[in-house]
Structures are given as structure tokens and as C-alpha cells.
Amino acid sequence: MSDDSKAILRSRNLSSNDTSGATGAIRTTADKTSKVPLLAVEHLVKNFGPIRAVDDVSLELYEGEVLGLVGDNGAGKSTFLSLLTGYYHADSGTFRYRGKPVAHTSPATSRRALKIEMIYQHLDLAPDLTVWQNLFLAEEKRKFKIILDKRYMIRRATEVLAELASKIKPDDLVGALSGGEQQVVAIARALLFERDIILMDEPTAAISLNKVRDVLDLILRLKSMGKSVILVSHRLEDILEVSDRIAILNRGTISHVLTNDHQMTITELAQMMFEGAIQRTVSVASNEELAEGRN
Ligand SMILES: Nc1ncnc2c1ncn2[C@@H]1O[C@H](COP(=O)(O)OP(=O)(O)OP(=O)(O)O)[C@@H](O)[C@H]1O
Ligand SMILES: [Mg+2]
Predict the structure, then answer these.
(1) Which CATH architecture has domain 3-115+196-291?
(2) Across 5-22, average pLDDT
(3) Whose CA is nearest to atom 26 of ligand 1?
(4) What's the CA gap between 7 and 186, in Å, rounded?
(5) Cβ atoms within 10 A of the Cβ of 91, count?
(6) I need a labelling partner for 295 at 20 to 30 A (CA). Which of 73, 196, 210, 221 fits?
(7) Where are the alpha helices (DSSP H) in the chain?
(8) pLDDT given for residue 245 in this prediction
(9) How far is the CA of 230 from the centre of ligand 1 (A)?
(10) Treating both helix axes as pointing N-terminal to C-terminal, what angle do 3-11 and 266-281 enclose, rounded to 10 degrees?
(11) So what's the pLDDT on residue 15?
């Protein structure tokens, strides 16, 4: 850990616990040691040919927390999320859900066993269908296995939209909704099918600035409902506002996991992200020093 990092942590009164000296990772003690994480991944690795996009990542996600995930372009954030959704298969590594190992291999396991729902940047919705039809798309409720139970689906859609304090109506056409409103529909789908973990990759990148507030409020609402969120964003001000903890990815590895004290500035966070990038380019000798505890 560099003197700069230490100074930032000290000035913020954050404890640090260097758990992997060899990579120089900084992990703050988040006072969660007694709790079993909702999701824990250990030593995840994903290679694309010669490129190691995710390099030995271990991370926990707790119930009702927002975990901010930041890092430079190409750091491996989206690839990491794709390992969680089962879109990509990890070359190695393990997954635990509420402490139990899960043999995680596919999008179906991700949804059913890990209770994960991903909110894609290019939302996976049918624009020419209504909100309630989108909510139940491919998972329609039927009476006697034949007749569509439209009344039930509209009622559940109304309930779940109310839970999200949204003004959207079940009969609204999805194509006529704004980007932020379409995200509400995607999230409502996650609630409807009782997913516990919501992954969001740059949810505010494609929407107008005045809708950013709505998305941040939505994230905080999900948290207040006990859901866990992993938020990937280049908008550090958003990360600092809504995250309980912040993980910094640097060239596929986690360089820091910080508890957010809501006093850290964008500059300080950027400095820690940037410093991670520098750390990796310095000589092997300094890594050896870290490993020997001489940091
Ligand atoms: N399908 C793929 N095939 C080959 N290489 C890939 C593939 N997907 C990602 N990569 C590489 O893996 C690395 C991590 O990419 P990833 O998209 O996960 O980064 P990111 O942190 O999400 O970046 P950004 O902030 O730009 O979205 C990059 O070097 C990228 O070029
Ligand atoms: Mg990405």
C-alpha cells in the first residue's frame, strides 16, 4: 500500500486490512465478518485467449448492500458481471450462495440458484409490447396451463410498480417509455421473480442527466427492500453517493475494497483507482516487499 493510499484511508478514518500482500490489495474491515455473505466468489479467473480479463477475483456481497465496482476501461468489470450472470463460464473459481457452494454454469443457474438478475445497458425489452407483457415475457402466468391469466399478471405488475414508487402503468407501451423508465421495468421484472441480487452495468450511461436521479433513487429503494446491488459506473459521484462499499478493479484484479464513509471525494477515489494502475507497473521488487510485509 502506498503512502498516499494510507493517508487517504487514515484521513477518512477507514481501517485497512491487507489480505493479499502479493497483489497489494487493500481491504477495509467492513464489520461484516460475522455475517454470511449473500454471494461470495473466490479466485475467479476468465481468459480471452492471451488476455486475462478477470484475474483471481474474490469478492463478497452482503444482503441489502450496494457494492460499487469501478475501474478503468478494460479493467474487467463487465466480464466479471458476465461471470456472475453465467453468460461467460469462469476458467476457474468458486461461487457460494448464502455460504453454500453452487456449481454455477449457466444463465439459468445464475437466475435460479444465485437469484441474480442483470439489468443490461441495452435493455432486453420488447418495445412494441406493454409493460405487463414485458414483465411476464416468456414466464406468462396461465390458468389451467392454457389460458393466459391476464388479470393476475396486470395485478402483480401494478403491485410491483407501486413497490418501486413508479408512475408507469401496466398498460403503457414499453417503446414509449424513457430510458430511465425502461430500467424500472427491467428492475420490476427482477422483483417479480424474487431475485436477490441486481447487477447494473453503467445504468446511467444511456439516459438523460435529469433521469440519473431517478435511477439512483431506485437503487436506494432496492437496498431499502433488502436487495443487494452491484453497480458498475464511470460516474464516480453516483458510486460515492449510493454505495456501501466500493471495489476497485485494475487490469482484472481487485486492488481495493473500501467501506464508503460518504466523505471520500471523487478526486480521492480516482487517485486510488489510478494508483492501482501505477502499482501494477512498478517493479516486481516492490510486490515482493509487500508480500514480505515491508510495505
Ligand atoms: N469477448 C471478448 N473477447 C476477447 N476479449 C474480450 C472480450 N470481452 C472483453 N475482452 C477483453 O477483456 C478485458 C476486460 O474487458 P471488460 O469489457 O470486462 O472491461 P470493462 O472494465 O467493462 O471496461 P469498460 O469500462 O470499457 O466497459 C479487455 O481487455 C477486453 O478487451
Ligand atoms: Mg464494461
Answers:
(1) 3-Layer(aba) Sandwich (3.40)
(2) 47
(3) 73
(4) 41
(5) 12
(6) 73
(7) 3-11, 77-85, 107-112, 131-135, 150-163, 179-192, 209-224, 236-242, 266-281, 284-291
(8) 97
(9) 18
(10) 160
(11) 43
pLDDT-based confidence at 142, cuts 50/70/90?
confident
- Distance between Cα 79 and ligand 1 center (Å): 6
Q: Is the CB of 76 under 6 A from ligand 1?
A: yes
Residue 9 pLDDT greater than 90, yes or no: no
- Give the Cα-Cα-Cα angle 131, 134, 138 (nearest 5 degrees): 155
Among all chains, which residue has been given the C-alpha cell 493510499? 5
Taking the domains of the chain in order of start, what are their residue ranges? 3-115+196-291, 123-194
- Residue 284: which pLDDT band, with cuts at 50, 70 and 90? very low
pLDDT of residue 22: 32
Percent of the chain having pLDDT more than 70?
80
Residue partners of 200: CB distance under 8 A and separation at least 6: 118, 119, 219, 229, 230, 231, 232, 233
The finding on whether 79 has its CB within 6 A of some atom of ligand 1 is yes
Distance between CA 208 and CA 212 in Å, rounded?
7
Residue 251: CB partners within 8 Å, gap ≥ 6? 55, 74, 75, 76, 277, 280
Q: Which three cell numbers stand for residue 134?
A: 414485458
DSSP state of 141: -
Helix, strand, coil percentages, rounded to 5, for the chain: 35, 25, 35
Q: pLDDT-derived band of residue 125, with 50, 70 and 90 as boundaries?
A: confident
